[in-house]
Amino acid sequence: MRNKLTWALVIVFSMVLGGGVVIGAxxxxxxxxxxxxxxxxxxxxxxxxxxxxxxxxxxxGAAAVDIAGSDVSDLYAAVRPSIVEINGLSARASSVGSGIxxxxxxxxxxxxxxxxxxxxxxxxxxxxxxASAQVVGRDAGNDLAVVKVNIPADKLTPARLGxxxxxxxxxxxxxxxxxxxxxxxxxxxxxxGVGRTLAGGAGxxxxxxxxxxxxxxxxxxxxxxxxxxxxxIGITTAIENPSGDRVFVGIGYAVPINSATRFLxxxxxxxxxxxxxxxxxxxxxxxxxxxxxxxxxxxxVLITGxxxxxxxxxxxxxxGNVAGRAGDVIISIDGKETATYEALANYIDSKKVGDSIxxxxxxxxxxxxxxxxxxxxxxxx
Length: 381
Known about the structure:
The protein is mostly beta strands. It folds into two domains: about 1-270, Thrombin, subunit H, CATH 2.40.10.120; about 275-375, Roll (Pdz3 Domain), CATH 2.30.42.10. It has six helices and 24 strands. It has helices at about 70-80, 110-115, 255-270, 285-295, 310-315, 340-350; strands at about 5-10, 10, 20-25, 85-90, 95-100, 105-110, 120-125, 130-140, 145-150, 160, 170-175, 185-200, 205-210, 225, 230-240, 250-255, 275, 280-285, 300-305, 330-335, 335, 355-365, 365-375, 375. The strands form four sheets. Strands 1, 3, 10, 11, 12, 13, 14, 15 and 16 form a nine-stranded mixed sheet that branches. Strands 4-5-6-9-8-7 form a six-stranded antiparallel beta barrel. Strands 18, 19, 20, 21, 22 and 23 form a six-stranded antiparallel sheet that branches. A hairpin with a 7-residue loop joins β11 and β12. The longest helix has 13 residues, at about 255-270. The protein is elongated and about 65 Å long. The two termini are about 15 Å apart.
């Protein structure tokens, strides 16, 4: 698993940052060393994410703004009021992150790591209005959270939420947030990639991330990645950090807005968000691996391990390793070919806890099919 991810959240207390990816974009308040959440190993088994609720309207009370032909200054002016600064305070540290106003009731979308472990939260609007905030709901599996402020509706400008499934590599984007506590900072760039996977801070990979080259730094966590129409397509979350310095080097990541809108009903209601899992370790099958282990197929996903008592274990699936006995090779789920681990993971992510899936696999050169009832992923950090 990659070890180059660091949260783009700035936390002030004594701890040394290693090289990696900065997950979290929050800004430094003192000269103290900055800390990053522990890098969780990406369990190749966490093939899912979801609890499924219908997503609310993407407008969320926000007025439509026609800015597709406008310059960047006009775009910034239109979206800036929907971005807030979030200040956290605990017995050990203070932190700075960003957030996105999503409705006139005072609900604000941000990253879970921005508010995790914080005793007191304050929100600062673009016009300087300050208010305390309370956590409404959390989804550690997607690094998302909603906090709420008690501020008059006429002071709140909700962002327009877009459709991240339509994002294309190469399209123009801007990021707005509070890097290093510098309020309302704007950067621009393009979408560099989609469908990225990174180790999360709670034992579960973050999936389907949007990669961009719009500069984000500590303090940007929880802020917005906007398209040219002023719609939020992602929540800025992490930056590539190969040198260990908490600075942007050209690669940033954002949680796709559709991951948020899918679970907003649960988050706003304070319900626990659950994500499904099979409980297996996986490895893509290659021709060389297939030959060495006599798998009987050169396509599919090899089960390298099965967690005792997991959904996969209960269904009778078997694991193995490349040095010894070959495990089962999953070749399709619900009739859909699973040529890669990512295809399998993304499909499971689209399901709900309790859903049953039909898993076709190869064992000892023969095809078999079992029913697996997906169970809930359990947060490990």
